[in-house]
Amino acid sequence: MRFFQKIGDIWRHEELRKKLGITLGLILVYRLGSFIVLPGVNSDVLAEQMSQLGSGGLGDILSLFTGGAFTRASIFALGIMPYISASIIIQLLSIAVPAVQKLQKEGESGRNKINQWTRFLTIAITLVQAPGYLASTVVSVPGVVQNPDGFWWFSAVTILTCSTLLIMWLGERITDKGVGNGISLLIMIGIIATFPQAIVQEFAHPDTTLFFFLVELAFLLIVIGASVALVQAIRKVPVQMAKMQQAGGMLPAGEGARSFIPLKVNSSGVMPIIFAQAIMFVPLYMTQSETFQGSEVLQSLSDFNGLWYNVLFFLMIVIFTYFYTAITVNPNQMADDLKRQNSFVPGVKPGRPTAEFLDEVLSRITLPGAVFLGLIAILPAIVFQLGLTKAQTFAIFFGGTSLLIMVGVILDTLQQIESYLLSRRYDGLMKSGKMRGRPQSPVGGIAG
Predict the structure, then answer these.
(1) In the chain, what is the greatest distance between 2 CA atoms, to the nearest angstrom?
(2) Contact criterion met (CB below 8 Å) for 80 and 168
(3) What is the Cα–Cα distance from 376 to 272, expressed in whole angstroms?
(4) What is the pTM of this model?
C-alpha cells in the first residue's frame, strides 16, 4: 500500500513527473538503438557464432555493459565506454598538467572547456576502437558481412562514432533534464537488460537443482545487502556550532547545536569500478589483433576468471578509489566552510588543523572501503571458480562491476527522487524519511 502511495506522490509532483518522463523516454531511445543492426551485417549468423563460442571472458562484460549491443553488432555496439575512457584520461591529466588544473579552478567556464575536450577525445578513441571492433568481432566471422568493401568500412565506422556521441548526448541530457546520473543510468540499464536471461540460463543448466538455485539466490541477496552497506556506510565527524539564532535571540556560548559531517566510506561511488573496467578492456582489444595474439601476458589479462586479471583489477580499483576520493572530496574546502559558518570539530582547532584532521579520517576510512570494493568486484570470478554458479553469465551478477553499478546508481537515483518529494513536504521513500548518507551538516554536499 505504501508503495502505491509513493507512486501517487511522485505523480502529483509536477517537476519530478516531467523529469522522470524525460529520463524514461531517453532510456527507451537508448534501448531501441541497441537493437538496430549495422547496415550490411547479418546479425543471425553473428549470434549463432557467438553462442558456439560460449563464454567470451571480457567480451561478456562488454556485452553486459551495452545490453547485448556488442554481440548484436548494433549501432550502439561500443556503448558509452569510449566516453568513460576519455574521462579517465582527462582526469589523469588534471593531476599531471597544470593547465588542466587551472581550468578546473575557473568555475563553470573551465568545466565547459574540459567537457569539450572530453568530447573531442571521445571521438578520437571511438575512431580507433570502431575499426578494431569491426575487424575482430564482425568481419572476422564468415558470412556476417557479404561485401566488406571500403564504403562499408567508412559507413560502419562513421555510424559507430556518431552513435557513441548520441549515447553521450543522451547521458548528458538525462543528467541535466532528468533524474540521476545519465551515464551511470545507461550503463545500469544495459546490465539489468541481461539479468533475466542470466537467471534463466542458470536455472536451466543441467547441473542446477532447485535447492541449489534457491541457495544461490539467498547468497546473491546477502551480497546485495553487503553492497548496499558499502555504498551507504558513513563516518560521522561531530561538529559544534558555536552559536545559533533562536526565537529572535542568540543561544549562549557553549549551547550551540551539534551536527556532524557524514564522510562516506566509499566517497567515490561506482566510478573506480567503471574506470578500472574500462582500462581492463584494453588487453581484450589488443588480443584481437594478430600482432598480439601470441602474447601470454595479454592473454592472461583477458581471462575474466584468471588470477592476474583479478589481481590487477583489484589493485586498480583500490588506486582509483583513493584517486577519485582525492579529487571529489576537498578537506581544505570543508574546513573553510566550517570556519566561515562559525562551526568547529570539538577538540580540533579551526583552519588548517581541521583540514588535516578531516584528511586523516578520510584516509583511514577509505582504505577498508577500497579493499571491500575490490573484493566485491572480483567476487564473480571467485564464485565461478569455486563452482558456486554453473553459468558464467549469472556469476557476473554475484558482486562484481555489474552489481556495484546497479546498487550505486539505484541508490543515487532514489536519493534524488526522495529529495524532490521532501521538497514538497511529502514523506521520503524510506519509512524514516531519511536515507543514510544525505548531507545533514553545515558543510553541504559532503555526503556525495
Answers:
(1) 84
(2) yes
(3) 13
(4) 0.74
Which set of grid coordinates corresponds to residue 111?
568545466
pLDDT in tens, 163-181: 999 999 999 999 898 888 8
State the pairing for strand pair 249-250/234-241: unpaired
CATH superfamily of the domain spanning 198-448: SecY subunit domain (1.10.3370.10)
Distance CA 436, CA 440 (A): 10
DSSP secondary structure of 259-274: EEEEEETTTTTTHHHH
* Phi, psi for 281 (deg, rounded to 5): -75, -20
* Beta-bridge partner residues of 34: none
Dist CA 233 CA 217 (whole Å): 24
SS3 state of residue 292: coil
Place of cell 548520441: 166
Model confidence pLDDT, tens digit, residues 342-396: 888 888 888 888 888 888 888 888 888 889 888 888 888 888 777 777 776 777 7
Residues pairing with 245 in the sheet: 250
Using DSSP, state whether 409 is helix, strand or coil: helix
Two domains, one topology: 18-179 and 198-448: yes
- Distance, in Å, from the CA atom of 224 to the CA atom of 403, rounded to the nearest integer, reads 7
- Asked if residue 16 has pLDDT above 60, the reply is yes
What is the rounded CA–CA span in Å between residue 272 and residue 309? 16
Please state the domain extents for the chain. Answer: 18-179, 198-448
Distance of CA 132 to the CA centre of its chain: 25
User: What CATH topology corresponds to 18-179?
Assistant: Preprotein translocase SecY subunit (1.10.3370)
